[in-house]
C-alpha cells in the first residue's frame, strides 16, 4: 500500500527537480516548466495530507484548486511575456533578456 511517506518522497523529488531546473536552465520555457513542477509538488502535498491526515475536511482540495488556478494564470502571463520577448529579440534565453535597456 502506498503510504504518506511515499507520496511525500515523490513530492520532494518533484520539488527539488523543479528548483534545479529553474536555477540551472537559461531557456525561459524550461524555467516556466520548472516553476510548474514546483507548484505541482505543492499540490501533491496538499492532496496527500488531505487524504491521510484530515480526510473529513476539504481544505486540501480547496487549496489545490486555488493553486491550479493561480498556476494557469501565471502560465498564461509568462507565455505572453515570452512571446513578446521572442518577437523583439528573436531569442528566449535569459542572457539576452538581461540585456534589455529601457
CATH topology, which one?
A: Helix Hairpins
Query: H/E order of the elements?
Result: HHHH
| Average of per-residue pLDDT values | 87
CATH architecture: Orthogonal Bundle
Number of continuous helical runs: 4
Beta strands, count: 0
Gap between N and C termini: 57 Å
The number of domains is 1
Estimated radius of gyration: 17 Å
How would you sum up the major sheet? none
Specify the CATH class. Answer: Mainly Alpha
Globular, elongated, flat, extended or rod-shaped: what is the shape? elongated
- The residue fraction in helices comes out at over 70%
% residues in beta strands? under 5%
Could you say which structural class the secondary elements and strand pairing correspond to? mainly alpha
Runs in which pLDDT lies below 50 for 5 or more consecutive residues are none
